[in-house]
Design goal:
Elements: H1 3-24, H2 32-52, H3 58-80, H4 89-113, H5 116-122, E1 137-140, H6 142-147, H7 149-155, E2 162-166, H8 167-177, H9 182-199, E3 206-209, H10 219-230, E4 233-236, H11 239-247, E5 252-254, H12 255-261, E6 271-279, E7 286-289, E8 295-299, E9 308-319, E10 322-332
Parallel strand pairs: 1-2, 1-4, 2-3, 4-5, 8-10
Antiparallel strand pairs: 6-7, 6-9, 7-8, 9-10
Length: 335
């Protein structure tokens, strides 16, 4: 259900309520026009406040309320010390108002800037943790959804938790899927297919998060703020986003780095099967690929292109794009 539908319905209800008050309590609200105006104005004001607070999470609201209570208690304790008994009643009223406003504001700001560990110092032995929900929240960005490997990790239960897909990421996927460029369009549609595949997995709950941060223009900045506010972990394939997350101490996992760390270690002298698929750069060379995509260059194997052969690793070359393996033909077999 659209939020704007609820807002319009609420505005109509407050307007009708204002009219009803003018009919039942004419001594308070004189005239049905004034009642309609008051009801409409109250509803419109609350909708504007709702729009301004849309980037604030429930955790931030709870922290602000807690800080307001602490600030009010401190202001009340100062007021009870009778430090201001010598001033007149009019001045005392202004001092009290200033105390409660000042300490209430300071308490809200400090509470919203604090984390759960700070609260545990104020209230010892108490940890603000949900007991009935898993704490492992997985925030997915556009690149990792399009990549699709996260779906395999979830299905094989290597990764578990509640999958959180921000609404602005979903909108970005839809924008890519509607692009005129066929390559971008295919990537966007693959991302939507992968997301539907994840949602159909009964083992994992998927939530579309409505939070947005209008003051942030970039999707990456919104992802980092949302991940931090939820206490979640960000999954991405974007190298630059991962580096920024590292600098800002935002928990994250880069699937490309994870895949590189899990690649099998190949040592010189090792013999392995390989299908040769094309010619190499130099004369007589043939090229094949390992299951993880690592390129293997085999010397004197041009005649075996298209066949499954046994090769012996001779050396490894580290390049900016990855590792290239150089091998010699060991034993050839029919494909």
């Amino acid at each position: 259900m659209s939020f704007w539908f609820i807002r319009v319905l609420f505005l109509l209800l407050t307007t009708v309520a204002g009219y009803a008050c003018s009919q039942y309590r004419p001594e308070v609200i004189s005239g049905w026009r004034i009642g309609l105006l008051i009801g409409f104005g109250l509803g419109a004001m609350l909708i504007v406040i709702d729009h301004l607070l849309k980037g604030i999470s429930l955790r931030a609201f709870s922290a602000a309320t807690f800080g307001l209570i602490l600030g009010t208690i401190v202001a009340w304790l100062i007021d009870r010390t009778e430090l201001f008994i010598w001033v007149s009643k009019e001045t005392l009223w202004m001092i009290r108002l200033g105390l409660f406003l000042s300490f209430g504001y300071i308490g809200m700001i400090l509470a919203m800037r604090s984390n759960k560990e700070d609260f545990s110092l104020i209230i010892p032995y108490v940890r603000f943790k949900a007991q009935n929900l898993p704490e492992n929240l997985l925030v997915l960005d556009t690149s990792v959804i399009i990549d699709g490997r996260i779906a395999d990790l979830l299905e094989k239960r290597f990764v578990e938790g509640i999958v959180v897909v921000p609404k602005f990421v979903l909108q970005e996927l839809q924008f890519i899927a509607d692009a005129e460029d066929p390559i971008r369009r295919a990537r966007g549609r693959r991302g939507l297919e992968m997301l539907n595949r994840i949602r159909q997995n009964p083992r994992h709950e998927v939530k579309i998060h409505d939070a947005d941060f209008p003051e942030e223009k970039e999707v990456d900045a919104k992802l980092l703020r949302l991940t931090r506010s939820l206490g979640a972990k960000l999954y991405t394939n974007d190298y630059n986003l991962g580096e920024v997350a590292e600098l800002q101490s935002v928990p994250h996992v880069n699937l490309n780095k994870l895949a590189a760390a899990l690649k099998p270690v190949i040592l010189p002298g090792e013999v392995m099967p390989l299908r040769l698929v094309r010619e190499g750069k130099d004369k007589g060379q043939a090229v094949g690929y390992m299951p993880d995509g690592t390129m293997v260059v085999v010397n004197q194997a041009h005649a075996q292109i298209g066949q499954q052969v046994q090769v012996e690793v001779q050396s490894l070359l580290q390049t900016g794009a990855g590792i290239i393996i150089f091998a010699e033909l060991k034993v050839a077999a029919a494909a």
